[in-house]
Amino acid sequence: MNRMTLKSEIQNISLVEKLIDDISAEYDIHSDVYGKLLLAVVEGVNNAIVHGNKLVKDKEVFIEYDISDKEIEFCITDSGEGFDFTNLPDPTTPENIERTHGRGIFLMNHLADRIEFEHPGNKVKLYFNLS
């Protein structure tokens, strides 16, 4: 596993974008996978910074990634207390359409080929098929 640690500052999202660009170039990742990977991982890191670590600059976000011939896995862990990932509102239902929360995980679910949360909810794993 490769690892990157970031302080909880929004401008550090650019470091994640650069990481994805570098991985994409090194492993010749198809543009379709690259787009999904970039959006989902950036959203996951943004959630970790904003919701998990509550923008507390001294708290860290840990990003681990592993690449095989068949898939790329990203694991994003924040220093927060977690959340109940088993009870997520659907942002597409009429009662939630105006709400600003809940869209990030919905998006990540649709972009990644597989997504897993670990108890207590401060760690998410995103998997993307490369073939």
From TrEMBL:
Keyword Transferase listed = yes
Q: Cite the Gene3D superfamilies for this sequence.
A: Histidine kinase-like ATPase, C-terminal domain
Residue spans making up a coiled coil are none
Print the keywords alphabetically: Kinase, Serine/threonine-protein kinase, Transferase
Q: Does the keyword Calcium apply?
A: no
Domain Histidine kinase/HSP90-like ATPase positions = 10-127
Show the CDD domains listed in the entry: HATPase_RsbW-like (cd16936)
Pfam families named in the record = HATPase_c_2
Q: Name one GO molecular function term.
A: protein serine/threonine kinase activity
UniProt cross-references to PANTHER family, sorted A to Z: ANTI-SIGMA-F FACTOR RSBW, ANTI-SIGMA-F FACTOR RSBW-RELATED
Name of the featured protein: Serine/threonine-protein kinase RsbW
Organism whose genome encodes this protein:
Natronoflexus pectinivorans
